[in-house]
Design brief:
By secondary structure, the protein is mainly beta. The protein contains no helices and 11 strands. The chain is globular and about 40 Å long.
Amino acid sequence: EVQLVESGGGLVQAGGSLRLSCKASGFSFNLNAMGWFRQAPGKEREGVACISTTNGKAYYVDSVKGRFTISREKVRNTVYLQMNSLTPEDTAMYYCKGQIGSSVTYWGQGTQVTVSS
């Protein structure tokens, strides 16, 4: 079993920055990828960024490229999402996801990000 706990959300003005953290515990050494998803009210959950725990390669949705950076601190079993130049369109609940293989997934409880205009 893997547990994921997010933190770092909050209220920020447009143009500001936030850094989200996702700490993994349990059998987290089995995770081969971790990522961030978000869901705004009335919208479907969308993938924002993910990172391979084997080679560190990162992927981003087009809407956040150049503004968001995902990184991993292996020693702390933590994945970060640095979010810069935030806009009101980034307002959503942000969820951390961990994956083992191609079918076993774990989710955190989410952390709210609100960007005011």
